[in-house]
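Summary for the steering committee. One of the milestones for this cycle was to obtain a three-dimensional model of the protein with magnesium ion bound, which we needed before selecting residues for the alanine scan. The sequence and ligand used are listed below.
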Amino acid sequence: MIHRPNVTDPGRVIAHRGASRVAPENTLSAFRAAAAQGVWWVEFDVSLLGDGTPVVHHDGTLERCTGRRGPLTDIAAADLSDLSAGIRHGDQFRNGPLPTLEQVLDVLEELHLYANLEMKPHDVPTGAIAAKVVEALATRPWARERIITSSFGHAELAAYRASAPNAPVAVLFEKPPRNWRVVVDQMQAAAVHLNFVHLSESLLREASSFGIDTRVYTINQPELMEPFREHGLTSVITDHPPLFLELDDWARWAKE
Ligand code: G3P
Ligand code: MG
């Protein structure tokens, strides 16, 4: 049985790491900005700190987003208040926190957003992130209908699937291998997520014919998706949703 978020016509534009062109990626400000831009969906990355706290952060190291040297696993939850995740952005974001998964889930609930939660297993034992994500989502009944979990780490995704047999899952590839559908079937996944440069009409046709959703990342050029839009492309994951939402062809998927 395939599990998918229970939506009839969800928005097709997903804000990558939140509205990451106008706010620091993967921060509460980025998710609030995405909602203000009119998206239904955001994508974000989940990694673990050294004490096992799940946080919303892309890299395995801190430097790019916070300026602090060293791996993420060097710090614990108590250290988060010393960090700003907005060092590359304007003054209004300068003191924005690097958020925990719990803080982000609270904001998604408040804003009624859907989300693609991507697990990033940097240097932690297989299954460690999956266990934390399962635990965090278990107490939030709305998440079952509104969050789809993905990972490039297919062993991590398999661990998640084993602990959450009814949760929506997407298999994430850079470039789908020939047997991509076997992997999707093994994971009982609802969707395949891939780099837009590897999207093809034949993949879309195959996915559609088996009821598999297709989402592409990270696409900031709407004109490149035009040939695929009517061939079953489910969603685009973009750094700047207005690029799509301001076009007539995509605007009808904006949240009111
Ligand atoms: O989940 C889609 C996309 O975010 C995957 O790439 O490196 O931006 O997490 P990355
Ligand atoms: Mg990601």
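Key point for the committee: The two ends are 32 Å apart (CA to CA).
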